Amino acid sequence: MDRQETMGILLVIAATLVIGGGSLFYYLLPSGPYTIEILARAPERGNWFPSEIEIKRGDRPVRLIIRNVDGVTHGFALPAFNIRVDQIRAGQTAQVSFIPSRVGSFRFYCTVWCGPYHMKMIGILKIKGEGKR
Ligand SMILES: [Cu+2]
């Protein structure tokens, strides 16, 4: 395992902790935005992580932190909520927010031609209707 692979694994572990910590934070601070971190990588290097996100419908804003941990530029679009970030350069982070007001499955995807599998750089945001978020 080389240094870069080790770093990649550590980043995934860190992201898992951040996402897990984010959920805990949600219960502790029910009025703040609900933060979700997404790692951006071209499909051949792991794709969006997580590539499937499930949340509950609600009035509280959701904040997406999109972290480009790849070596190339990516973009981000979640058209169902009018969100588009044209360029997130390697190593950079973008933040967007929206109110998850509608139930459904919504695609998010990369908007920059980042490699041969660019068209597969797609994730799903599922917004569920029942229960309390
Ligand atoms: Cu891309």
Structure at a glance:
The chain is an alpha/beta fold and 133 residues long.
Describe the protein:
The chain contains one helix and eight strands. The protein is an alpha/beta fold. A hairpin with a 4-residue loop joins strand 4 and strand 5. The strands form three sheets. It has a three-stranded mixed sheet. It is 20% helix and 37% strand. The chain is globular, with a radius of gyration of 15 Å. It binds copper (II) ion (CU).
Number of helices: 1
| Bound ions, cofactors and other small molecules, one mention each | copper (II) ion
Specify the biggest β-sheet: 3 strands, mixed
Order of helices and strands: HEEEEEEEE
The computed structural class is: alpha/beta
User: What is the radius of gyration computed over CA atoms, rounded to a whole number of angstroms?
Assistant: 15 Å
Strand order of the largest sheet: 1-3-6
The strand count comes to: 8
Q: What sort of overall outline do the alpha carbons produce when their principal axes are compared?
A: globular
State the end-to-end distance. 40 Å
How confident overall, as mean pLDDT?
Answer: 89
- Percent of residues in beta strands: 35-45%
Q: Assign a percent range to the helix content.
A: 10-25%
Low-confidence stretches: none
